[in-house]
Amino acid sequence: MTPTTTRLPKARVRAADVLPLGLIGMRGRPVRAVLSGLGIALGIACVVAVLGISASSQARLLARIDALGTNLLTVQPGHTVTGDQAGLPVTAPAMIARLPGVRQVAHVGAVDGAIYRNDHIAAAATGGLTIRAAGLNLPDTLQLTVVSGTWLNPATERYPATVLGAVAARRLGVTEARDGPQVYLAGQWFTVVGVLAPSVLDPSLDASALVGFPVAVERLGSEGRPTRIYERSDDDAVATLVGQLPPTADPAEPSAVTVSRPSDALVARAAAQSVHTSLFVGLGAVALIVGSVGIANVMVIGVLERRGEIGLRRALGATRRHVRIQFLTESVLMSLGGGVAGAVLGAIATAGYAVYRAWPVVVPGTAVTGSLAASLAAGTIAGIYPAARAARMSPTEALRAV
């Protein structure tokens, strides 16, 4: 009779067994696993928080742009063909107001002179503040907010009264206009009748003291010329008005007139924030790399400490592929656990900061999924060498080492 040989079934690892195998080392050394994943968690938290805070800030800025409208155009004098500074005619605001589609027109004019808190301040200590004559409808056109006092009216625009921008009020030490404080403006005393909140569409007004055009002409030597005209129109008329405003504002020299849209500058500012965000994301990526190196070190040490376990599993029929899968899975789980914890921490940090600043809370989904994918990749890369080293051990050598 021919002897029969019994063939043992080929050892296999089921998909359902992969996760329990990867958790063996983590359950045996939980503190080490937590500390190893901490580096990944900090890197992911940094990335998610930075991207989330940046997105929340941009959402707030874009929301304010939408609220203020993108239908505001600014008309300013440019330069003549000879390179000299041009000027706008006194009649420019009235001419612009006649154009079809124009809803509101306001203007300001530069006034020579400096602003001081009193007449004992050194002449050179101007604080970078300027004097501007302003039309009565400027707050309605630019949607300015008076936080203290009132805006100029037909009576106060003819007398030495001024409204301070937010920066000017702070530098002059004028917190409110209730008691009628006075400032020394172009060699004359002016009473502060109002203080403005920061201007979103034209931040240059924040460092200005605004007076009426009549008093600027009568007392401060102004010619009454506008240096900046604000025009708000219907949304569908903006594109047409961009070409009509220069010849309307200055028919004699339309090429010396520049037209811009303040909301474009705000959008550019939002785009500039993303440039700075990339720097902080890079720092988070460095932390992620450092965390993955830490996981790799821990896994290498774990392989040396668990030689007896590796030798016993090999002796019982586990193949090199099985050992490789076990240690690679452990590395991925450790990194992925840190990534999930970091994403949660980053989202919490974003929400806390956004609520504190009264911003809309925005946590980009791409930041979370991208961070988790990065932690998965980091764990995979960090586990390749330790898994390969564990798989190369022969059962005899591993058991003998124990």
What would the keywords be for this entry?
single chain; alpha+beta; eleven-stranded mixed sheet; 15% strand
Can you walk me through this structure?
It is a single chain. The protein has 402 residues and is α+β, with helices and mostly antiparallel strands. It is 53% helix and 15% strand. The chain is built from 12 helices and 11 strands. Strands 1, 2, 3, 4, 5, 6, 7, 8, 9, 10 and 11 form an 11-stranded mixed sheet that branches. Strand 7 (182-185) and strand 8 (188-196) form a beta hairpin. Helix 2 (30-68) packs antiparallel against helix 8 (262-305), helix 9 packs antiparallel against helix 12 (395-401) and helix 10 (320-356) packs antiparallel against helix 11 (365-392). The two termini are 45 Å apart.
Write the layout of secondary structure elements.
Elements: H1 15-28, H2 30-68, E1 72-77, H3 92-97, E2 102-111, E3 115-116, E4 130-134, H4 138-142, E5 146-149, E6 161-164, H5 166-172, E7 182-185, E8 188-196, E9 208-212, H6 213-219, E10 228-233, H7 238-249, E11 257-260, H8 262-305, H9 307-315, H10 320-356, H11 365-392, H12 395-401
Parallel strand pairs: 4-9, 6-8
Antiparallel strand pairs: 1-10, 1-11, 2-4, 2-10, 3-7, 5-8, 6-9, 7-8
